[in-house]
């Protein structure tokens, strides 16, 4: 894709110009009687260390992930986990002089799929996608909290997770449990993401030259565990995801996020796990 279709956005704009919803039926893959629940809303940030306005969005994600806005999102008498955060570093800003160490063309492809679903003209950073259904510029705090509060919620899957290290370079994540929602014949993908927090880099070139950059909830690996069709809410589903680990892997800084998505990348349920210290 030509570079002229990329943009790096920041500053304040009205929600009407920055928030747009994905059209279509939210129940495309699950039964209508399961379109409610108290599971977390998945917030995805598409970001880059090569974008001048991304660090502010990354800070917002760090605060969201650690629960700084939970009470505002829940409202009076609310409960449950308001949000689950995943940050995808794209690679299309690498040409500007700083190669993002966490950037991947895989995440650029994922962002492009959302851009197409939303009928947008431009790929930009920082971009937030809420529950796979609406998007906004990544540093607009008030619009984000409103989007999370208004997003559809679904039951969290009831997976049990086991972790193994077949070799020193690999991690195996096995899941077993009920999805807690009925899936129709259109099917739904069970995605497993391995993320890392507490990342700090001294940026030596590019738009953020001279800045110390901090990143949390950065997706390092992601796999589709399986696709399921025509299953009941109580039926047990099992599968395994295999990850090749990176140099310096530290289980204490990592976690696993599981989420269900349809062919339009709309999200229908989320669950997260901490890695055991001994893994």
From TrEMBL:
Q: Which InterPro entries does the record match to this protein? A: DUF1223, Thioredoxin-like_sf
Signal peptide boundaries: none
Identify the domain of life: Eukaryota
Q: Which Pfam families match?
A: DUF1223
> By its UniProt entry, which PANTHER family does this protein fall under?
LIPOPROTEIN LIPID ATTACHMENT SITE-LIKE PROTEIN, PUTATIVE (DUF1223)-RELATED, PTHR36057
- Protein name (database record): Thioredoxin-like fold domain-containing protein
Q: Supply the source organism for this entry.
A: Eutrema salsugineum (Saltwater cress)
């Amino acid at each position: 894709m030509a570079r002229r279709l990329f943009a790096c956005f920041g500053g304040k704009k009205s929600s009407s110009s920055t928030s747009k919803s994905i059209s279509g039926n939210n129940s495309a893959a699950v039964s209508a009687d399961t379109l409610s629940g108290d599971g977390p809303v998945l917030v995805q940030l598409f970001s880059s260390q090569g974008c001048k306005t991304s660090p502010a969005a990354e800070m917002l994600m760090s605060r969201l992930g650690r629960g700084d806005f939970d009470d505002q999102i829940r409202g009076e008498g609310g409960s449950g986990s308001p949000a689950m955060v995943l940050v995808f570093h794209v690679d299309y800003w690498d040409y500007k002089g700083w190669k993002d160490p966490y950037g991947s063309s895989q995440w650029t492809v994922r962002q492009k799929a959302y851009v197409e679903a939303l009928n947008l003209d431009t790929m930009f950073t920082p971009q937030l996608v809420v529950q796979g259904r609406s998007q906004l510029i990544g540093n607009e705090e008030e619009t984000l909290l409103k989007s999370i509060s208004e997003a559809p919620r679904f039951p969290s899957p009831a997976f049990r997770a086991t972790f193994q290290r077949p070799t020193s370079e690999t991690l195996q994540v096995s899941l077993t449990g009920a999805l807690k929602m009925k899936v129709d014949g259109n099917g739904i993908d069970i995605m497993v993401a391995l993320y890392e927090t507490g990342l700090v880099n001294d940026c030596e070139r590019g738009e953020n030259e001279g800045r110390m950059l901090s990143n949390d909830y950065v997706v390092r690996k992601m796999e589709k565990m399986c696709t399921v069709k025509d299953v009941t809410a109580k039926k047990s589903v099992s599968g395994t995801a295999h990850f090749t680990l990176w140099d310096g892997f530290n289980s204490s800084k990592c976690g696993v996020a599981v989420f269900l998505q349809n062919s339009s990348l709309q999200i229908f349920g989320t669950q997260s796990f901490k890695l055991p210290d001994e893994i």
